[in-house]
């Protein structure tokens, strides 16, 4: 593995709360080390696969539609948990993150570790700006994402200094 870490904010700022992923990425600029790749994606699987190609760790920030919804509620999930929740949740995109992760696994393009930070959303209709519940959750979502990036960097450093041996 390369040790490369990528943060992908999934969403569209022109669709209300769906802009939360890009908002987190923008907030991280200048706050994470320069070697961390920061990217925004509309969630299309081919583009997602390209963004995390060669990455050891991918941190994905996504809007999450649940029924019933609890707008502003934060979730931190692994790739396996996203796949397990795919039936009970819906992405704001045509193909959800669960399908994208399954495709990446089938094509052997899945990073060693995927961390998903998601926030339940209220409004993904056309229009700019986040709803009040999502806007209120944004500082904590940014902090959780930054913490994941910091831990991923520490984990990669430990892997390199231990000769690539798996960590306990």
Automatic annotation (TrEMBL):
GO molecular function, a single term: aspartic-type endopeptidase activity
Annotated keywords: Aspartyl protease, Hydrolase, Protease
SUPFAM superfamilies: HybD-like
InterPro entries xref list: Pept_HybD-like_dom_sf, Peptidase_A31
GO BP terms, alphabetized: protein processing
The keyword Protease belongs to this UniProt entry's keyword annotation: yes
Protein's UniProt keywords contain Transcription: no
Region annotation Disordered: where it falls in the sequence: 147-168
CDD domains found in the cross-reference section: H2MP
Similarity section: Belongs to the peptidase A31 family.
The name this protein goes by in its record: Hydrogenase maturation protease
Organism: Streptomyces albiflavescens
